[in-house]
Write a structure and sequence with these properties.
The protein is mainly alpha-helical. The protein is built from twelve helices and no strands. The radius of gyration is 18 Å and the shape is globular.
């Protein structure tokens, strides 16, 4: 049995839940604060897992993890900020189009995509276009969002940039676990280390206050980090199957959980065109996974 499919799906759903609650915390705290302290909590959990496992590190695998963490750290801040400012049901599907990146990487390495893969890419792009269309006047306010903060070009740019960062994370983690035959735990440890360094640097250059202790919200923030780290590990183990294109898009199914939670807990409503865009974006990811 190929465990890559269930592991990839599990990583996507786990990411979706962590992203939803991370976005909620980013409406109460600075996005960088949520990203940094959640990553610290995830790193502590990962350290415990490494101590228990007793696995030996592979330098090449750790190196690929370090590279992956740079992109994912920046992407996480942009994604949480986008979730805080925009509509979760829109930001999440756009960021999921990072699934195109591992498909492109597979193409560049000589793996020609089939007809179904091409259809998935086109469908995902069409979904992004529709979901990014202006909302009818009067619908800019929605439950659970800051008043007067309609979806804008800024939110769209953040979602697209996070998509690129997440897509590159998939590629580099795959290179660390399969190309370098690194132990997934150590690859993710490398990614977490460089992600923390990147987040700290952003905070020190910009607003140092963003690294302040989140106070009584540390519990929910820590759970976000543990969920995110768990999803990273699930993806890393799924990547050991060697099928980057399939595993990458399965990990990108996280908007399913985010959208369901946003509709259920926040009562978010979209226009007809945007609903169609969400469906197309998720359908495109699904087609890529089935290719």
């Amino acid at each position: 049995m190929n465990f890559g499919v269930p592991l990839g799906l599990s990583s996507g759903l786990c990411w979706g839940a962590a992203d939803f609650f991370g976005g909620m915390q980013s409406r109460r705290l600075p996005a960088l604060t949520v990203a940094f302290w959640s990553q610290v909590a995830g790193a502590l959990g990962l350290a415990v897992a490494l101590a228990v496992s007793g696995t030996r590190p592979v330098p090449a695998g750790i190196a690929w993890g370090l590279v992956a963490g740079v992109g994912s750290g920046c992407a996480l801040v942009l994604f949480y900020r986008g979730l805080a400012e925009g509509t979760m049901s829109i930001v999440a599907p756009i960021s999921a189009c990072g699934a195109v990146v591992p498909v492109a990487a597979a193409l560049l390495t000589g793996h020609r995509p089939g007809a179904l893969t091409g259809l998935g890419v086109i469908t995902a792009i069409a979904g992004v276009v529709l979901v990014s269309s202006p909302r009818p006047h009067g619908q800019e306010r929605r439950a659970g969002a800051p008043a007067g903060r309609g979806r804008s070009g800024r939110v769209l740019a953040m979602a697209l940039a996070s998509a690129l960062g997440f897509g590159l994370f998939y590629v580099f983690v795959d290179a660390g676990t399969t190309g370098s035959r690194g132990e997934p735990l150590w690859v993710i440890a490398g990614a977490r280390a460089s992600s923390l360094v990147m987040l700290s640097t952003i905070a020190l250059v910009g607003h140092r206050s963003a690294l302040r202790w989140p106070g009584r919200r540390i519990g929910p923030v820590a759970l976000v980090g543990i969920g995110d780290t768990g999803a990273n590990l699930l993806f890393a183990y799924a990547a050991t199957t060697g099928n980057l294109a399939v595993v990458g898009v399965l990990g990108s199914l996280y908007p399913v959980a985010t959208v369901v939670l946003a509709r259920w807990l926040l009562g978010e409503r979209l226009s007809g065109g945007q609903n169609a865009g969400v469906v197309l974006a998720l359908t495109g990811v699904g087609l890529l996974a089935a290719a």
